[in-house]
């Protein structure tokens, strides 16, 4: 059987990431892993969820909890999100909010809604590799989004036209980005809005880490800035993608999109054709836990991750050789390192796992063109401070030899 003959052309861009395959091998107990980039399970609000699932299965919600429900999402959860959005300067109503199975599903739907084969998506360089994975299925071309640089709208347009393409959206992980940990400043957000207005494209604002700020001043979401300019969310071009994965639980798979109603109603049609709706009981439990203790949970996470970030930054100062630089994130889970240009981080990873028992993610996977082989991503979310010290010391030793 020659399956390749039967698969659609889009499947040729669905390749297993070498790194993901490699990372599967890293669950071994003797490895200190800074690779994962997932929440620490010890911080999950497990008891709150025990009570919430029990409540929604025993009170007046019980029949609905196990039943089909609407594609837009569970109304009380959407209402809670409306009030949360309000605190960020985003005035909206429930019809501007659409529940997805994680924000990853939102990225898939956005790819499906906007990208015909050959269309151009502007993405940061590096960008979240899961976004590239989601968009790749729709066979786009990518161009490099330089949010605060001097590339003009005309330049993006001309480049797309030269490739018989049309720019459809700009995608950014805005706060404490995956993978760099960096945050887009206010001027860059305003500049992106100007440029997107001129190009007449959508903005996909990935806010997966938005709640994870440990210090510094919060910067208004791009959607909030655009509402301030245009007066009303239904006049905006920004799709804000939120997630409960980094705050309450990634395993429950609940995220949302907040955007103009015209876009939301199209996304709802996609969901009807895809999985009908996200799990009803799960949305109910998330709503219960969020409305009873979201801020308390976020404060708990902040305290733990802030200490780990501080520890990792201090260890990097202490153990890294000259010629190695790194970002200093104000939140999130990631630090991005740049090594001297001649080093290949994929080779270093193999060596690091073998000889130092330390894992990280080579940066290449986060670039749409697979470039920048001298970069890597470290996550501080899962290791405790002792492991961070030991792991960064070992990595420092490896890099001293390599540099
Ligand atoms: C920037 C970014 N966006 C989206 C996601 C997807 O998260 P989820 O589908 O769990 O909401 C992740 C997950 O790591 C991420 O880092």
Concise account of the structure shown:
The chain is 44% helix and 13% strand.
Describe this structure in words.
- This protein is α/β, with parallel strands linked by helices and 403 residues long.
- The chain is 44% helix and 13% strand.
- It is built from 14 helices and 13 strands.
- It has helices at residues 3-6, 18-24, 46-58, 62-65, 75-87, 102-114, 129-136, 153-162, 186-199, 222-230, 261-274, 280-319, 345-356, 385-402, and strands spanning 32-33, 97-100, 120-123, 141-144, 167-173, 202-206, 238-243, 255-258, 325-326, 334-338, 358-359, 361-362, 375-379.
- The strands form 3 sheets. Strands 2-8-7-6-5-3-4 form a 7-stranded mixed β-sheet, sandwiched between helices. The chain has a 4-stranded antiparallel β-sheet with strand order 9-10-13-12. Strands 1-11 form a two-stranded parallel ribbon.
- Helix 10 (222-230) links the parallel strand 6 and strand 7 (238-243).
- Helix 6 crosses helix 7 (129-136) and helix 6 crosses helix 11.
- The protein is globular.
- The model has no long low-confidence stretch (mean pLDDT 94).
- The site of pyridoxal-5'-phosphate has 13 residues, from helix 6.
Looking at this protein, list some descriptive labels.
4-stranded antiparallel beta sheet, 403 residues, binds pyridoxal-5'-phosphate, 7-stranded mixed beta sheet, globular, alpha/beta
Q: Which ligands, by name, code or SMILES, are bound?
A: pyridoxal-5'-phosphate
Structural class: alpha/beta
Question: What order do the SSEs take from the amino end to the carboxyl end, as H and E?
Answer: HHEHHHEHEHEHEHEHEEHHEEHEEEH
Rounded radius of gyration (Å): 21 Å
Number of helices: 14
Strand order within the widest beta sheet: 2-8-7-6-5-3-4
Percent of residues in β-strands: 5-15%
- Uncertain runs: none
How many extended strands?
13
Mean pLDDT: 94
Name the helicity range.
40-55%
What is the rounded distance between the termini?
49 Å
State the major sheet.
7 strands, mixed
- Label the overall shape: globular
